[in-house]
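seq/struct pair 1
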Amino acid sequence: MAGHAAVPSRWSRVIVTRPAGEAGAWVAALQARGWAAHSLPLIDIGAPRDPQVLARLRDAQAHWSRWDALMFVSAAAVQHFFDGVVPDAGTHRAGTRFWAPGPGTARTLSMALQRLGLGPERIDQPPADALQFDSEHLWPVVSSQAKPGARLLVVRGVSTSADGVPTGGTEGSGREWLMEQCRARGAAVEACAAYERHAPRWTPSDRALAEQDALWLFSSSEAVAHLRTAMPAADWSRAGALCTHERIAAAARAAGFVHVYTSRPSLPDVLVALESVRSPI
């Protein structure tokens, strides 16, 4: 973890920016440690609304076993993909592997596979002691599977406007990097969007919370971008940012955050990092 200046003592408040479906558990865990934690999602997640995207997803859900491996970029990708998968007695014979960039996605994936009668031994993920949980640290684990003739499906999200118009964003540059590595080895790589992401619509109380000095917990560069769009004139030099990847930290610095820290993305690691930034109230 790295900081850039002395830590202001007022940071007893932490703003959790994860999507609403995930934020509750994080807020509860932080509050149990004595932090004044608040949820302010900076990304809304929902089912795809574009008919072509949805048709592509439905086809992949119905025929997922034709791929040698499926990579899920996040727990949300797992949840939205398997919500539309019907258990089939024959699919357990398929040799499909399931890739996860970190333990949170792997846990969600394990539960989803269990409903299909498949075991966690099908899951590939970075080792527990990896310096970071991302595509780069997943690659050494799965690189032997990327060979000529292999078929990989990357299940991810698509960025849209609040009205559902695609804005061109993907789930992260690391995912694109891994796809390029697989293609370079001769594997056929496809992708489908299991969900869409867009900036949330804030209430007046949401904006009032955002205007207070706090330590922001960012788990996505896109969340930082949405904050910049929502508050383009804000001065973040007095706030803090705890980011779960160096790419996200770079986005926070570009947004004007001076006090920027990094942590691995798991909740236990984030809690340890927070203790290092400032003791709880």
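seq/struct pair 2
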Amino acid sequence: KPITNNPQVSQIVRERFKREAAILEFLGHESKQIPNLFAYFHENDQFYLVQEWIDGNTLTQTLQEEGKLGESAIRELLLSILPVLEFVHARGMVHRDIKPDNIILRRSDRLPVLIDFGAVRETMGTMVNTDGNTTSSIVIGTPGYMPSEQAAGRPVFSSDLYSLGLTAIYLLTGKIPQDLGTDLRTGEILWQIHAPGISDSFAQVINKAIQSHPRDRYPTALDMLTALQIAEATTEATVVSPVQGLPVSQPVQV
């Protein structure tokens, strides 16, 4: 339901709702990891989306039932969800609310499904400011998972990568972002002490994704996906010598 019934705004809200819903319809039709949108309509000053129900557990429920996930499981999750984000971003849409509750592991195939896009909800906050320009009074996102530029109402594609990085950290550590410490000098999130055994190459990918300023993150989901694949290859190429117990970069013949 829109926050205002201003006639000047109502037509704008209807147009924006149709535009954003049409994008969601296209995304769900083209990607099996985004719910199908079966219908959208406006009735009695209320706006409705009719979406496919996804049978499965959210990542929050998965952690509660199965406990913390290991590096390999998180890696597979990211390798599966990053192409979906790249697809979404290529259509000019920022999800804006990526968090453990908004990714469902579908029961039939265990694929992660991205739900609850924020653009339509933001449309409901449309209003006219004192200058006569339309703006949104609603900031879409979840505290702890959204970066500062998104909290200021200026999300970019890498805002979703920041949120995805914090989601991965939650699954690795079992801790929500507010329970993680920060370096008082740099502002960096101190999460690795809660996830011992994580490879340096994998941690570097996560740490770059959660940098406070967008310029220091991966600019696109494809860039993060490529970095993750390189990190995976680096990890697989490192074996442990049975004699010295030291990492070596070449396979050891015994």
